[in-house]
Amino acid sequence: MFLISSDRLQVSNTHQWRATKTEAKIEVQQNFLIDYLPWIMEKLNKFEVVHIPLVSNLPLEASREKRILSAQSIQSLLCIPMVSGDELIGLVGSEYIHALIDNLFCSYGDRESQIKPIIHVEAIALNLETAIPCGLLINELVTNSLKHAFPNNKSGEICIELYQDQQEKVYFTIKDNGIGIPPGFDWQNSSSLGLKLVQIISKQLKAEINFDSCKGTVVNLRFYPLNYKSRF
To answer: Which of 11, 91, 192, 221 minimizes the number of CB atoms within 10 Å of its CB?
Structure first.
């Protein structure tokens, strides 16, 4: 979370939520001059959410932001304005997928030392309409693995993979090396609310999806980014 100074000249990171093994960045994210972030601040001052799916693809007018974010190895960013009355007072920023996974593992703090996340996510540009359903899928499928894949305090790994081919098709896999799917389990007819949500979201993405149980559970999805027309 970033707050704007009382003189409205600087913005600083005041709070950071992260997994215990994730690098802390709060100390190096202090006293940014607002003039260094003109493109982002212009949008936030209009109370707009700023979604940067790929920092390397920022436009020329965002060259300052591109330089600052790249220097901190940030590949993608979601900024949500914080407003009091009719005034912008700060923003909540997130490196979307990594932050989501960190938060999920933090919520299972007693297992964090036993279950290791492995993240292989390429720097690909997903529009907001596609990125949000992907985040929901990660939430449901990783949560399912954390809850069920490693009973009796068993240790293991959960791997998240995301990449895109030259035809822009997205390949998305979540797998674990836990106990696997029970024999005869039909995930499409499961009473689990989480798996029902996975079905709904995969249909929204028009995704091919399959579950496999080989040395754990593997969920593979294949889809193209959604292409919504402008609503305005």
So the answer is: 192
Give the CA angle between residues 96, 151, 214 to the nearest 5°. Answer: 75
Distance from C-alpha of 157 to C-alpha of 149, rounded to nearest angstrom: 10
Q: pLDDT category, 221, cuts 50, 70, 90?
A: very high
Angle at alpha carbon of residue 26, lines to 22 and 29, rounded to 5° = 125
Rounded Cα distance between 164 and 170, Å, is 4
For the chain, list the domains and their CATH numbers.
Answer: 2-94 (3.30.450.40), 98-223 (3.30.565.10)
Q: What's residue 61's pLDDT? A: 92
3-state secondary structure of 137: helix
Q: Which helix (H) or strand (E) holds 147?
A: helix 128-148
**What is the Cα–Cα distance from 174 to 202, expressed in whole angstroms?**
14
What pTM, to 2 d.p., does this model score? 0.62
| Residue 89 Rama label (left phi>0; alpha psi -120 to 50; beta) | alpha
